Structure formats: structure tokens, C-alpha cells
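INFO batch 0412 | record 1 of 1 | parsing
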Amino acid sequence: MQPLTAPTTRSKTHLAHPSKRGLAARFVRWLTTANSELGLVRGLLEVFRTGDVMLADALYCNYFLIAMLLERDVDVVFKQNGARITDFRRGWQLDTRDHIVFWPKPARPEWMTPEQYARMPEDLMLREAKVGRQVLVTTMVSARDLGKAELSELYARRWNVELDLRNLKTTTGMDVLSCQTPQMNEKQLWVHLLAYNVIRLLMAQAACKAGVDPRGLSFKHTVQLWTEWTARGLCAAQDNQRLFVLIAQSKVGHRPGRIEPRMRKRRPKPYPWLKVPRAQARRQVQRHGHACRPK
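INFO prediction complete | emitting C-alpha cells
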């Protein structure tokens, strides 16, 4: 019998500002070049609207992705990709380590058709600015409209994506899926995304009533309040004003520039992984006893 292997599913989510739209996602079950992370985000381009600004890390600082977003009148603020050399002696100087450059069109990638490649612009006019220890790339080239300090503050909002994913996986309990088939696990994922959008909708409505920023409200408090509200059989449609007042009462602290190590505090238990069916593992224990623990 072949040992069990964990099925792999890759997802890509688009997180909008809480006061505008909720969360959009796309799932694939098999990992290939066509459904890489950049390929998945290209499949979510239709959720962007004119005037949006996409914030992302260095992986998405890609010529063709930026060109596709500009075609939809969507601006970007990306961290510079480490494979690209930034020379501030070139281009049009705006400020200290802040200039405008033209990126030439690279060679056609395998996933792009010749017709799509022909429609791409021959170059892109982009702004590169060094803020702190990182270089940011943006399509908003006017230094008068957006200075380096405002650009850094705008990109810092990307951290909200990490917080939103933490809320989605930890607070709503999506980190461990309990279904036995890929089809049911995919349904379970969509149910979690639906619940996430419902909670964000309640937070946006409560923030609008209270006149505060939705980011200043607590997601976990809203989940706990909504769970208790529905458990008591209360109707949100009839008494929504009281519900919104209770949601707006709990606010999160403003902690800019917070840095946390990517480490696990609690030690895992020293047991091996279950890589065979449970019934087969039981028979092995009955025949040979439990395996010795590693020292």
C-alpha cells in the first residue's frame, strides 16, 4: 500500500479595504506553472476597479502584471524584486534616491500568447523610491501628489493583509479542515470566506454608524458578539442599531511599525507523522508495539 500524502491546494485571495468590498479568492488543486501565485492573481484581475491601488510584496513586482493592472487603470505599490538592480543614478531624479525610470518589455513568457505579448507596451514608466531599507516601485509617478513619506505609509497598509489572513485562518478556524474529500474541503473553504465577508460587512456598517475607521474595530470581538447574538435567537435586521453600537465599542490599539519574529513559541510533541491509514497503524501497534520516541 502506498503511504498517504497530503493533497495540495493553492489559493490566492484579494483583500480590499473593509469599507469597500470584502474578500475574493481562487483555488486550484494542482500546482503547475499555469497556476503559480502570479498566475492565480492574474485570474483575479476582474475584481479590481478603476482607481484601485494594489499593494503587494516583491514577488508581484512583475512587468506583465503591472502592465495588465495599468490597462485597467489600477495603480500599484510593490516592493522591488531582489532580482532587479536599482540604480538611482539613472532616470529622472525626483528626490534623494527617488527617480522615474522606464522598464523595457522583457521576452515573452511561456504562459503568454503572441497576441497578448504584442498588445503589451514596449516600456513602462515607473517610480522607484528607497524608503528606509527597502525600495518601492509604484505607478504613481508624481512626487507632488505622493511624497516618499506618504508612499511609505501607503505601503505599510499591506501588513493588514497578514492580519486579515490570520483572522481568516485562526479566528474563524480555517487553519484545520475536517472534511475527508477535496470537494468538501473546497466547500468548507468557501463557507469560511462567506463568514469572513459577513463579519467584515457588520464591521463596516458599525464603523459607518459610529463614524470610525473599520480597521480600528476588533474582528475577534465581532465574531464573538455575532456568535452570542445568534445563539440567543436575536434578529440583526430588527435590532441592528444596538448590534452596531456593541460592535463599535471594542477598538484595537494603533501599533505602527510592529515587528514580530516568525517563530513558534510552544514546542511540538515528539511523535512521528501518521503517514499510513489509521487502521493499518493500529495493526502495526498491536503487532509490534508503539514506536520508540526520538530522544
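INFO post-check: The chain has a mean pLDDT of 84.
INFO record closed
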